Amino acid sequence: MSTESDTAVDLDAEARRIDREHVFHSWSAQAHLDLPVIAGGQGTTVWDHAGNRMLDFASQLVNVNIGHQHPAVVKAIQEQAGRLATIGPATSNLTRGRAAERILAKAPEGFEKVFFTNGGADAVENAIRMARLHTGRDTVLSTYRSYHGNTGAAIVATGDWRRMPNQYARGHVHFFGPYLYRSEFWATTPEEESERALHHLERVIQSEGPQTIAALLLESVPGTAGILVPPPGYLAGVRALADKYDIVLILDEVMAGFGRTGRWFAFQGYDVVPDLITFAKGVNSGYVPVGGVIISEPIAKTFDERVFPGGLTYSGHPLAAASIIGALDAMESEGIVDNARRVGADAIGPGLRELQAKHPLIGEVRGEGVFWAMELVRDRETREPVGADVIGRLKKELVARGLLPFAAENRIHVVPPCVVTPEEVAQAMSIYDEALGVVEADEL
After folding, report:
1. How far apart are CA 326 and CA 98, in angstroms?
2. Residue-level pLDDT at 281
3. DSSP E strands: which ranges in 176-286?
4. % helix / strand / coil in the chain, to the nearest 5?
5. Which residue, 31, 71, 158, 260, is the most exposed by fewest CB within 10 angstroms?
């Protein structure tokens, strides 16, 4: 006799079967994938059809900042769908305009326009286009430790291995950004790392020819590359170099923005104002695909009498716009950004430092807000990174204990939704502790 539980288990099995047979997954060899089934979620927790619950300490792809199924965002989408489900970009729409107003209210002075895109990659794509057209130059400088998206120019601006099979866009040059734990500059303090990284960047600018460079493109806090919190003075120094050589500064806030660092924008903690800001992810927590470029007045004016040669069918989609309004209003009224700051300072940071003191696998912890990484090493003295086998084993142990992790290279990123509570952080730390102990018993 079939029971409700049996049916749920069958649904999980069916989801896995259909996924393996018909879904082609990103950044993966397809034959050996073993992915968790997610059927529902609420806040920081997700579950499968059988009701097995997991803490989502990946925020999916570091984008569900407001948590799963926030009623204000769901309601905003439902109401907009009942009123007007879609409209083309070549129209005026009140919901779209109000979404732009909400975003600009969080941006610095001097930003008056928002160009909406479908996500973060095409936000970066269009920011690069704007910078090139505004300056009449071609070259874009970005760091080796970066990820900017999987479209033509965005993937070539990316510095990691994913760029290499996809280098079809022109005019991209890479340089080393600051990363004190694995310094390229023989630095021993954050101040030395900042000074030497800025010297390196200026030499790259001079060597490439400032007159050829349209833009400097940086993640305010590099995310997938390791949650590399910039050292003192670095971003302000980059701004000064951009001004000195008349280069557009694009700050990529796709992952770091809208609460992730405990601020509306990550750059607001670093004494810097860019010329273009790219966003996506946290602006509506991914409930509907959306992204965009926040444009400073001088660049916006470039296109007052000149056609901007870019557009997307779903630019400013009303369901996405409604979800932005719902998300940002709820984050404001419920103090969600401040919660991210407070929980990071009072719970996540101290918890990770306790784990580091206990577990020799952890070489370094770093981060702010709900944006942290544990860098795992075979040996703390040599800082040799652990291999993919160790990360794979650790991921398996974490999932088995009810935590959905985010792994990148030799790191586990601790990136829960901004609504996470201290109690949930404590639960997660206990799970990390147990899983690390099991892996260390085999590896060290």
Report:
1. 11
2. 98
3. 213-219, 248-252, 276-279
4. 45, 15, 40
5. 31
* Residue carrying structure tokens 């349209």: 214
pLDDT of 3 above 70: no
User: Between the CA of residue 35 and those of 14, 48, 404, 406, 416, what are the distances in Å?
Assistant: 13, 12, 11, 13, 19
Question: Tokens 């990103």 sit at which residue?
Answer: 26
Q: What is the dihedral of CA 230, 366, 375, 280, to 10 degrees?
A: -70
Query: Confidence class of residue 1 from pLDDT cuts 50, 70 and 90?
Result: very low
Q: What is the mean pLDDT of the chain?
A: 96
Q: Which two tokens stand for residue 416?
A: 């829960």
SS3 207: helix
139-143/172-175 β-pairing:
parallel
Give ∠ CA 185-190-195 in degrees, rounded to 5. 55
> Is 63:282 a contact under the CB 8 Å cutoff?
yes
Instruction: Tell me how far apart the alpha carbons of residues 77 and 71 are, in angstroms, rounded to a whole number.
Output: 10
What are the pLDDT digits (tens) for 17-73?
A: 999 999 999 988 898 888 899 999 999 999 999 999 999 999 999 999 999 999 999
What would the two tokens of residue 42 be?
A: 């609420």
Tell me the backbone φ, ψ of residue 210, rounded to 5 degrees.
Answer: -55, -30
Name residue 292's beta-bridge partners. Answer: 116, 279
> CA 275 to CA 107: how far, in whole Å?
11
Distance, CA of 444 to CA of 435 (rounded, Å): 14
Q: Which pLDDT score, from 0 to 100, does residue 444 have? A: 64
Number of residues that this document lists for the chain: 444
* Alpha helices (runs of H) in 107-228, residue ranges in sequence order: 120-135, 152-157, 190-208
Question: Rg of the Cα trace of the chain?
Answer: 22
328 versus 8: the higher-pLDDT residue is 328
CA distance 152 to 260: 27
Helices (H) and strands (E) in the chain, counts: 14, 16
